[in-house]
Amino acid sequence: MKTFANYIDGQWIEGKTTAPNVNPSNLDDVIGQFAEADADDAQRAIAAARKAFGPWSVSTPQQRFDVLDQAGTTILARKAELGRLLAREEGKTLPEAIGEVARAGQIFKFFAGEALRLGGEILPSVRPGLTVEVTREPLGVIGLITPWNFPIAIPAWKIAPALAYGNCVVFKPAELVPGSAWELVNILVESGLPQGVLNLVMGRGAVVGEAMVASPDVDAISFTGSVATGSAIAARCVASGKKFQLEMGGKNPMVVLDDADLDVAVEACINGAFYSTGQRCTASSRLIVTEGIHDRFVEAMCNRLAALRIGDALSADTQIGPVVDARQLEQDERYIAIAREEGGTVIGGERLERATPGFFLAPALVTGTTADMRINREEVFGPVASVIRVKDYDEALAVANDTPFGLSAGICTTSLKYATHFRRHVQAGMVMVNTATAGVDYHVPFGGRKGSSYGPREQGSYAREFYTTVKTAYIHAGQV
Ligand code: ADP
């Protein structure tokens, strides 16, 4: 069995312990043994990043462009193979996984260009003889903590801007998906990153993540994961004066109005709620449907659900792969039971047997729910969506906003009036009209409001807000 080491200060370092990376489509298939860093490894990685920051922070944009562009080229060239690894360790289908890898490659290409595009401003001072120059500088050492549901895209959209703007990185991937993270770091190393600039510390959140959050030598933390962990990290960062950025949960509404094109609405809801096994923070988990279309919508959804093929992520005809692990499966089943106890009618949602032992679950649609039920207030993070029947657009908007979260929101309608009003008044960072709540481009801002997110947006040129700090300089040139 192959063993995969951490990467600290330019060296591959074995862990004192290792953990197996298991395929959720086939529990007999172990992808490899992955090193588990401890707090000392994390400290060494942080120290290496600190040491490397001096030279890297003043590297030329061309140097940074070259590394990131090369990494992007390699990722794109290897997307079929890396996609296979990703599908094998996380359980999304092969086309979804290859698409995610391609997106990671494009992110590196985009941020290669951003290294060249980072400009500043020159303003006249209100005082005579003075000029004001506003520039951006890197922050220092950034700790990146990522979740399991996008094993390569989320690391890419944190690592690429961090490096593009001249920061050094300590990267801790999620325990369940170290394979894609390891390959990504290996590609960056082979693309010519100097020693210490990027460090990989695989291991447990409570040990490695905790050491990063606690260290005075880490200047900023970018985290994507659960609300509970994010809130704890936020409190620690405030106490130690670190800059931080959090992307956490969602309970994303998709409104379907009477005047919607039914086929468009069903497609957007099936995709948004169930593709990638519903394991996306932008998944549509609350389908808010007006009464004139409700019954036709539910019937069409049930027909589509019954025809979905759930199985091994690597099989060509699979549309929905397995749930990522036993703990998540238990959570999905618990919420399905809660929805039933609260009075919802559950269609689907049963465990499925396949040729190999894996975490297969039929997607669940829960009808007859109300906005106050737990199934509509708490994030499940699985292939589970509920239907809330409402009278009209006004009630639909009110229900859509009746949530502690605010990541993504959607509406299916042919009315320009309602689409326009919804775009303006829904409380979410991202709004989709007649398309799924999940699935955002790599070059535009990603992030939410309320309990979903904290700090500046990720992705696109907006990423510079988090990964740089602004300097205002005055130049006194005398009388000219
Ligand atoms: P999930 O429940 O979906 O796994 P988590 O928020 O627990 O979400 O995990 C997201 C990331 O946060 C993972 O990389 C995990 O290892 C890390 N993590 C978990 N606990 C902590 C912690 N106490 N401090 C820092 N990072 C943590």
UniProtKB/TrEMBL annotation:
Record-level Gene Ontology MF annotations: oxidoreductase activity, acting on the aldehyde or oxo group of donors, NAD or NADP as acceptor
InterPro entries per the UniProt record, alphabetical:
Ald_DH/histidinol_DH (IPR016161), Ald_DH_C (IPR016163), Ald_DH_CS_CYS (IPR016160), Ald_DH_CS_GLU (IPR029510), Ald_DH_N (IPR016162), Aldehyde_DH_dom (IPR015590)
Q: Which SUPFAM superfamilies match?
A: ALDH-like
Domain Aldehyde dehydrogenase, by residue range, is 12-472
Which residues are catalytic?
E247
What is the similarity comment for this entry?
Answer: Belongs to the aldehyde dehydrogenase family.
Protein name, per record: Aldehyde dehydrogenase family protein
User: Which species is the source of this protein?
Assistant: Cupriavidus lacunae
